């Protein structure tokens, strides 16, 4: 129990640190040179430049509806971490807004701002949160369709950069796009990016209970295989494909059922094919209907549709 508490403390510490680093990059490098970040923060920077309204307050206000929409659809822990990151991020934007700008050289702002922003956002994502409401909506759409999270976010950002080009000049749009790619590469180095699918192999004695929880809470079906350990004997091996954002919830599920389970997580380079939806699974008797009903009745949970990431 103490170990789990300390683990949560460490996670929230690095989320807070990442949010602070990201705010520093925005206020000290990007904003002074009218270079936009992606997502809702980018929209906030546009409004800030046009109206002079405080960026920290704008970011909080603009992100709130997106997190409220996702409140009943995404894991509570993810929402708590994301909300914490967003509040700290917005507060630190106001703090750093009074500091002397790090540079007014556009190339330096793009390079160093992009790298520092990537480190900050990467830390937040690595420890189970996110800093932008558009990512929350992208995750929800990804759970209903096969459209990748990263591609959806990229399309949204391209629209923002197009608006920036119209309002502030084409060069600002190009600087912003270059910053986005630098930030994405740094994200890849820290946590393999926000759109990287993951595959998990779980060796356990409690295959049925873990599989049912993975389905009911994450909407992911699980392949169950027979295994035999050289020392431990007969085991069940579970295979599941999921997103980076769901890894924290997966680990929590497994720890709550079988703390001694052996887990490996690796990247997935390509996915071919789709899963059947949850209703089909119930009709075929593969997933018991009571699992879906229990998930529907649980506070803050809706029965998810099962799909491939």
Quick overview of this protein structure:
The chain has about 300 residues and is α+β, with helices and mostly antiparallel strands.
Task: Report on this structure.
The protein has 309 residues and is α+β, with helices and mostly antiparallel strands. The chain has two domains: 190 residues, no CATH class; 101 residues, Alpha-Beta Plaits (2-Layer Sandwich). The protein contains twelve helices and four strands. The protein has a four-stranded antiparallel sheet with strand order 2-3-1-4, with no helix packed on it. Helix 1 packs parallel to helix 4 and helix 7 packs antiparallel against helix 8. The two termini are 32 Å apart. The C terminus is likely disordered.
Please tell me the total number of domains: 2
Give the tally of β-strands: 4
Structure class: alpha+beta
The low-confidence parts are 276-286, 291-309
Mean pLDDT: 80
Strand order within the widest beta sheet:
2-3-1-4
Order of helices and strands: HHHHHHHHEHEEHEHH
Radius of gyration: 21 Å
The N- to C-terminal Cα distance equals: 32 Å
Helix content: 55-70%
Strand content: 5-15%
Can you count the helices? 12
Query: What sort of overall outline do the alpha carbons produce when their principal axes are compared?
Result: elongated
Major sheet description: 4 strands, antiparallel
